[in-house]
Amino acid sequence: MTAQVFSYESLVHAVSGAVGSVTAMTVFFPLDTARLRLQVDENRKAKSTPAILADIVKEEGLLAPYRGWFPVICSLCCSNFVYFYCFHWMKASWLKSRQSTPSTDLIVGIVAGVINVLLTTPLWVVNTRLKLQGSKFHNSDIRPTNYSGILDAFKQIVRKEGVGALWNGTFPSLLLVLNPAIQFMVYEGLKRQLRRGASRELSSLEAFIIGAVAKAVATTVTYPLQTMQSVLRFGQVNTPTEKSTLLSSLQTLQGLLVNRARKHGVSGLFKGLEAKLLQTVLTAALMFLLYEKIASSTFRVMGLSSGHYKRR
Asked: In 3-state terms, what secondary structure has residue 169?
């Protein structure tokens, strides 16, 4: 078991996933900026993604769509490294060279997601704050922040809001482990269908298309929870003070969902979905393409390509 936990194969998957995700997110980062503004700033009028980006550039300058790039990339790199490593390590330990199934992919994806959330939520809380710092909001209730960097953000949040604030949004994040779990389940299932039992690499086009389809399905299903996650991470919500943390989290999440639905209708729960789909589908498609190519090239150099593909 120890050998499997610290296997080169899991490490290759983790590094390939991290590099692929960082590259893809850098390319499509402005789309994520548009999505986050629509989710957090309730008073910003919903427009097409190009229109939102044009407004941001006009109001805040040419580089505004890339504000907060560094903390996001750091968080994404750590998060995807942890997720890919845990997913492939647990899958290899469970299957022991047997063929995988959709239910196996889903269960392993959920467990890997829970581990990832508990370890990396503080990074995502900080990067959300930094990414939105200095933005011109249309909602006057949002309080400005003043962080000089990642470490200063950690210090200020702990000092002013307590250590627990670093895990703001953890409850919806735990629910949202379904997002990558569904994504990986659909991706791995489509990959098995394309291979039809053959031990071969995916083409670039195949990896791009099934990566896009998998992410589109997962994002649409879980989008309202993603919106509430962004709102909670931003730290502008007064949470209840019940003794039970779980009860408090449930009531806060329910209150946010109901309040947004009352104010803006059911469509308000999906505000920014166009920007999110455009960003996340393209990013995931490019990430999986790069991940497959980096991993397959590495395994080929290591002389593990044949056995590796039979197990996946």
From this structure: coil
- Would you state the structure tokens that stand for residue 82, as one six-digit string? 């942890």
Per residue in 87-106, pLDDT (tens digit) is 999 988 888 767 788 899 99
What is the distance, to the nearest Å, from the Cα of residue 272 to the centroid of all Cα atoms in its chain? 15
206 CA to centre of own chain: 22
* Two structure tokens written together for 55: 């407004």
pTM beyond 0.85: no
H or E stretch covering 76: helix 69-95
Select from 129, 77, 100 the least CA-distant residue to 234. 129
pLDDT 10s digits, 270-299: 777 877 788 889 999 999 999 999 999 988
Among residues 229, 248, 27, the alpha carbon closest in space to that of 127 is found at 229
| From 51-55, 109-113, 186-190, 231-235, the region with the lowest mean pLDDT | 231-235
Is the residue at 97 inside a domain? Answer: yes
Flag whether 8 is in a domain: no
For residue 161, the tally of other CB atoms under 10 A from its CB is 13
Domain limits for position 77: 15-302
Domain of 287: which CATH number?
1.50.40.10
Task: Report yes or no: 27 and 65 within 8 Å, Cβ to Cβ.
Answer: no
Domain total in the chain: 1
- Other Cβ atoms less than 10 A from the Cβ of 141: the count is 8
Provide the token pair at 43.
């008073």
12/17 Cα distance (integer angstroms):
8
Q: Considering the domain boundaries, does residue 1 fall inside one?
A: no
Report whether 279 contacts 26 (CB < 8 A). Answer: no
Would you give the DSSP letter of residue 198?
-
In a domain, 116, yes or no: yes
